[in-house]
Design goal:
Chromosome partitioning protein ParA, 10 helices, DNA_Partitioning_ATPase, Rossmann fold, binds magnesium ion, Cellulose_synthase_operon_BcsQ, alpha/beta, binds adenosine-5'-triphosphate, P-loop_NTPase, 8-stranded mixed beta sheet, 8 strands
């Protein structure tokens, strides 16, 4: 069941990359994982080999459907994707209105998948403060805030810590964690900012991901970083983060055994 929300006050920091590669890593370790795209850019699906011409998704009809699972696509062993899909401007406004004003909107749409034992749901959020993030506040069990190893992200840490970006998860289950992305140890500033984050966030920091050319390459080829470049720093970093997430979520993973689930409801 656990629902993990990947978000950030900033755009372009790697939310979608972290969502996709965390999902690949957890699925590879044997967990059943569903990624859900709440960003109408509809980019998450492109990390899973879904053709760019395939614009299906849940957002356009999310208000009239009581269950969004009919739009779930299988992306690999244990791995499922619920794309946002293409939306017109009117559909986007209605989607955001539902997110803002329908108290059980997300719980209802995901109710079937949230009931599947052991299923990990990872939600990719649009950047900044937005309707999806507000709606997710009381629903998410765990929040992962992605920041860059730069001074702009550093300046955003105090308002995040003071919960001006997002309130504490209402269900108070697993709380808020951080990932610092695009750390470059060859640059003094990036190194200093990374060290500052490490000291300040301590156990709340799931890990740091190195800036690595294999990341955009993996994105471009719609595959996992660990498949494109298994011995890269970024692949190692993702693996490390996924193991920490598995421990926090209480998942029994680590043997790399696939269950080869063909249906989202299968065991
Ligand atoms: N560790 C990394 N090293 C190198 N490039 C990276 C790394 N992480 C992400 N990128 C690149 O940064 C860009 C932005 O990543 P991504 O789309 O995941 O960010 P985002 O936070 O989801 O953006 P948006 O706010 O638009 O949703 C992509 O081109 C991605 O390939
Ligand atoms: Mg994104």
């Amino acid at each position: 069941m656990p629902l993990v929300c990947v978000c950030s006050p900033k755009g372009g920091v790697g939310k979608t990359t972290v969502t996709a590669n965390l999902a690949y890593a957890l699925a590879r370790s044997g967990s059943k994982v569903l990624v859900v795209d709440f960003d109408t850019q509809n980019a998450l699906r492109l990390h899973f080999g879904i053709p760019i011409s395939d614009n299906r998704g849940f957002a356009a009809q999310s208000g009239t459907l009581s269950d969004w699972s009919q739009f779930i696509l299988k992306a690999g062993p244990n791995l499922f994707v619920l794309p946002c899909g293409e939306v017109t401007e009117d559909e986007r406004l209605l989607f955001e209105d539902n997110l803002m004003n329908e108290p059980m909107f997300i719980q209802r749409g995901l109710s079937a998948v949230l009931k599947i034992p052991g299923m990990v749901v990872i939600a990719d959020m649009p950047p900044g403060r937005n309707a999806a993030l507000k709606a997710m506040q009381g629903v998410a069990d765990m929040r992962i805030v992605v920041l860059l190893a730069d001074t702009a992200s550093l300046s955003l840490l105090p308002p995040i810590e003071q919960h001006k970006f997002m309130n504490e998860p209402l269900n108070h289950k697993m709380g808020e964690y951080y990932v610092v992305n695009q750390s470059d140890m060859r640059r003094t500033l990036s190194r200093d900012v990374t060290h500052f984050f490490e000291q300040r966030l301590q156990g709340k920091l799931l890990g740091t991901i190195h800036r690595d050319e294999c990341v955009p390459e993996a994105n471009a080829s719609q595959r996992a970083i660990m498949d494109i470049s298994p011995v890269s720093a970024a692949a190692f970093d993702i693996e490390h983060i996924s193991k920490k997430v598995a421990v926090i979520l209480g998942l029994s993973v680590g043997d790399g055994a696939y269950h080869h689930t063909t249906s989202i409801y299968g065991s």
